[in-house]
Amino acid sequence: MDATPVWFMRQAGRYMAEYRALRARHSLLEICRAPELATEVTLQPIRRIEVDAAILFSDLLLPLEPMGLAFDFVKGEGPQIDRPVASPADVERLRTFEPREALSHVLEAIVLVQRELSGRVPLIGFGGAPFTLASYAIEGGHSSTFARTKALMYGHPDAWHSLCEKLATSVADYLVAQIDAGVDAVQVFDSWVGALSPADYREFAMPHTRRLFEAIGRRVPTIHFGTGTAALLEDLREAGGDVIGVDWRIPLDVAWQRIGADRAVQGNLDPTVLLGPSHRMFSQTDDILARAGGRPGHIFNLGHGILPSTPVEHVQMLAQYVHSASRRAR
Asked: Does the residue 252 lie in any domain?
């Protein structure tokens, strides 16, 4: 294409009135489990915003339930797992599963979305990286310190690696099933991996994330996303992914130099910038585009998801601006 492609993490979500209307009648899990509803939410931003990709509406945690970790979403607090992993015995009890059976509703949604998209834009599927899913499984939800996660990681390394092996196998099977169902690319979310030092990443996370990417192979393009990863960029590259996500804590050109010119990059606007005046949003966008320098391989995105309080008009303006500004620069 003649302009920088753009899509936004959480481009389907609470900042959109039509999504809030659906959520008034259905829980998040009900939407995830109903292919028609998941399809509708996936398509909502495609109708309103000038984005170049759809991302499947689902949730990172869906593979945990068929493994034996039931969870739900608590209003104002996010996901909560009923019985978090607390010991090596808990790890042993976790099951692997067949995603084409346990998560068939997700695969059905992919078929429905692709039918509606009819080739207008590609559809991105996704799954959670082993470290981030393990963190949720152990913490029972969000955490600011990851104290329980690291206590098990350091104190019971064999159990930790067993847990991550199970997660890597399950998520790899799930992503391959998504690819077989028709997604055009997949993104692996390692949302909490910035909690690790480079040495800990290499010991406790990288082997399992690499195994996940190796299992996907060259079937479709792959995106490797994390936040707080400025100290880990070379390691993320080594773990895998055709595209490496870059958050707002490091300039795009500096990050790309460290990642390497043979990989594409995705990023890297701070999501909170969309809460401010449009002139600041545009000036920061100009800076990112200038740092990309018009090189092929830059996907414009936020460093993390759109915040619920974001004005939808700002998202619309930003997507249009990325296209027009990058087109002028070529």
From this structure: yes
Instruction: State the Cα–Cα distance between residues 205 and 86, nearest whole angstrom.
Output: 19
Reply yes or no: is the peptide bond before residue 268 cis, omega within 30 of 0.
Answer: yes
Token pair 């998202």 is at which residue? 315
pLDDT one-digit tens code per residue, 85-129:
999 999 999 999 999 999 999 999 999 999 999 999 999 999 999
The residues annotated with a catalytic role in the active site are 10, 14, 23, 59, 136
| pLDDT tens digits, 128-168 | 999 999 999 999 999 999 999 999 999 999 999 999 999 99
Structural domain count of the chain: 1
Q: Is residue 210 part of a domain?
A: yes
Is 268 contained in some domain? Answer: yes
Instruction: Show the domain range for 45.
Output: 17-328
156 CB contacts (<8 Å, ≥6 apart)?
A: 87, 88
Q: Would 33 be classed as within a structural domain? A: yes
Task: Please list the residues that pair with 232 across neighbouring strands.
Answer: none
Domain with residue 212: its CATH number is 3.20.20.210
pTM over 0.85? The answer is yes
